[in-house]
Amino acid sequence: MRIVLVGPPGAGKGTQAAFLAKKLSIPHISTGDLFRANISQGTELGKRAKSYMDAGNLVPDEVTIGMAKDRMEQEDAANGFLLDGFPRNVGQAEALDGILKEWGVRLDAVLDLEVPEDEVVKRIAGRRICRNDSSHVFHVTYSKPKQEGVCDVCGGELYQRDDDKEETVRKRLEVYHTETEPIIDFYRAQDLVKTIPALGKVNEVTERALAALEG
C-alpha cells in the first residue's frame, strides 16, 4: 500500500505512522528522518538542505521532493510506503502524483488524523521534557511526574520547550492550516481521503485507521 498521513501538529502522526507501517509491513518515511539521513550521509541533497537550514531559510520544495523520491526508489519501498510529513503543500502533492504516475502506480489512501484545535494545544503545551535526557517526556495532564517539575527517571529538572509554548503552537497551527491543510482537498478530489478521529488511546486510533484502509 502507498499511503500519505496528514494531520496537525500534535495529532500523533509519528506514533501512528510507526504502528501502521509495522502492521502493513511497509517502510515509514518521515521528512525528519529524510533530512537527518541525507545531512549525516553528506549527500548532494543533504548538503543543499543544510546550507538553507544553516542560513535560517526554508528548504526549497525541489530538495525535499528529491529526497523523498530517492527514498521511495529504495528496494524496501517497492511494494509500498507510508509518507509522514510529505507532501507538505499542494506543490509537493502535485510533484508526488507526477512521480507515481511516471512509475505507473498511485496512492491507495490519504489518512487524515482529525483532532480539535484546543486538544492539539493542550497536548503540546502540556509537554514537559527532562533537561538531563530529552527522551524522558511527561505531561501536566496525561502523564504527570510524581513530583511537579522533577523527572521520575533521573530526578532532572522538567521544562517546557519554546516550541511547545501555546503561542508557538498556535502559530504552527496557522502554518498547517495555510500550507498543509489544502492538500486534503487536493486528495479529496481524487477520492483518496479517509478521515480518522484521532482522540482516544493510541491502539484505538490505529484500529480505526486500519479499518478505514480495509473499507
TrEMBL record:
EC number in record: 2.7.4.3
Domain Adenylate kinase active site lid span(s) in chain numbering: 127-163
UniProt pathway: Purine metabolism; AMP biosynthesis via salvage pathway; AMP from ADP: step 1/1
Coiled-coil segments: none
GO MF annotation list: AMP kinase activity; ATP binding
Catalyzed reactions: AMP + ATP = 2 ADP
Binding site for ATP: 10-15, 127, 137-138, 200
Gene Ontology biological process terms in this record: AMP salvage
KW Zinc (keyword) present: no
Pfam families membership: ADK (PF00406), ADK_lid (PF05191)
One GO cellular component term: cytoplasm
Binding positions (AMP): 31, 36, 57-59, 85-88, 92, 161, 172
Subcellular location: Cytoplasm
NMP, as annotated region: 30-59
UniProt keyword Secreted, yes or no: no
Entry similarity comment: Belongs to the adenylate kinase family.
Entry's free-text remark on domains: Consists of three domains, a large central CORE domain and two small peripheral domains, NMPbind and LID, which undergo movements during catalysis. The LID domain closes over the site of phosphoryl transfer upon ATP binding. Assembling and dissambling the active center during each catalytic cycle provides an effective means to prevent ATP hydrolysis.
Subunit structure comment from the entry: Monomer.
The protein's role, per its UniProt record: Catalyzes the reversible transfer of the terminal phosphate group between ATP and AMP. Plays an important role in cellular energy homeostasis and in adenine nucleotide metabolism.
Name of the protein in question: Adenylate kinase
Gene that this polypeptide is encoded by: adk
